[in-house]
Amino acid sequence: MADYLFEGKNMNNLQKMSKTTNQPFYKKTWFWIIIAIAFIGLLGAVFWAGKNSTSNSATKTEEKSKRKSKPKLVSDKLGDKTTENNMALFQIYTRIKVGDLMQDGQGGSTYAYVKKSLQSGPSKISDSETSGIETTVAKWKYDDMTLTFIFVNNKVVRANLTDFRWERPANKLTRKAYKKLSNSTTADEVTNKFGLPDEMAQSLIWGNYKTTYTWYTGIDGGVGSRVTLDFTGQRLTGKSETGLSN
């Protein structure tokens, strides 16, 4: 009797197990767990694909925008190139008059004229006064150029153009050409042959107009090479060079 009961219980257990085992796979717990995991994975893949697509699209748009916004270059009479904006600033700089430092800036352009010509106020300005003489240093900073003016009693007495570089088709200012420069050489002869300088400084003292021209481009030399020429009026009064090739 006991054996029968045992066998009966075993049969019942086996039947229950058989019923559980024979359930369709889509009714089993493990099946839905796998489905849930797969669904979560699919959502993640879609999310990251969308994010990468958006990122790639933004990158392409930015690169396209950069290509479109590349400034147009213009050339001077010697073929030296720069942007239209730089050329306009260079021309404005050359039109601003420098007054005599020893005569309170007489003949120099006023601060208001410079500001109007450049169509904006300076990026940086500082004022000082010594023995009743008012001095102002005003600097206009641009992407490829810096213009600095010193005013005495509201008149320009010194004008500097710095941080500018031309794009030149050839290196014309060689050591041989440099050695030929003499006191009889004029400023116009130099610029007509070698192009306008990359940097300039102008001043007027006791009626003597003094300029300093510096070339960093269009010269036959390595990195850091330069040529600096000083003029009084049109005549060359001093010269120096660094790094010209032999």
CATH topology of the domain at 73-244: Beta-lactamase Inhibitory Protein, Chain:B, domain 1
Gap between N and C termini: 121 Å
Largest sheet: 8 strands, antiparallel
Task: Sum up the overall morphology in one term.
Answer: flat
Q: What is the class of the domain at 73-244 in the CATH system?
A: Alpha Beta
Average residue-wise pLDDT: 83
Number of strands: 10
Please report the number of helical segments.
6
Strand proportion: 25-35%
Task: Provide an overview of this structure.
The chain is α+β, with helices and mostly antiparallel strands and 246 residues long. The chain has a domain at 73-244: Beta-lactamase Inhibitory Protein, Chain:B, domain 1 (2-Layer Sandwich), CATH 3.30.1450. Helix content is 38%, strand content 30%. It contains 6 helices and 10 strands; from the N terminus they run ααββααββββααββββ. The chain has an 8-stranded antiparallel beta sheet with strand order 3-4-5-6-7-8-9-10, with no helix packed on it. The longest helix has 40 residues, at 29-68. Residues 1-11 and 13-21 have low confidence and may be disordered.
Write the layout of secondary structure elements.
Elements: H1 2-21, H2 29-68, E1 73-75, E2 81-83, H3 84-95, H4 111-118, E3 124-130, E4 133-141, E5 146-152, E6 155-162, H5 175-180, H6 187-194, E7 199-205, E8 208-215, E9 221-232, E10 235-244
Antiparallel strand pairs: 1-2, 3-4, 4-5, 5-6, 6-7, 7-8, 8-9, 9-10
Name a few traits of the molecule.
246 residues; alpha+beta; Beta-lactamase Inhibitory Protein, Chain:B, domain 1; eight-stranded antiparallel sheet; two-stranded antiparallel sheet; 10 strands
